[in-house]
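Contributing new records

If you add data, match the layout below exactly. Sequence lines come first and carry their own label; structure lines follow with theirs. Keep one chain per record. Anything else will be rejected by the validation script.
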Amino acid sequence: MKEIIVVAAIWQNEQKEYFIAQRGAEQSLSGYWEFPGGKLEKGEDEKNALQRELKEELTIDVIVGEFFMEHRHPLNKNVMLVLKAYRILESKGELRLTEHQDFAWSKADDLLQYQLSPADIPIAKKLIE
């Protein structure tokens, strides 16, 4: 079975809210909400991949912190999505969406009120615990 490794950001503000972004019209699962990030490129370190993806998608520079969790989500019978979430320690720069259509800051208890992508739901559930 082929594995696609994707990194995701657990980014929290001073009000203890988490950043989520709504997938754009051109993306698969358009309209669903997610913890932003993206695919690991061949030979790339996971933390570096997350820094690169957030720079590309949100135009911010981040310092990636500790590993939070991993969730394995089957996309079909031949492909497994391996979602690896990391905490964001710091961010710099002006936030601008380049691929997403919207974003929100949400308290942990409110995350499941958003239509999260199926792979992101276990992250939200762990944040709520």
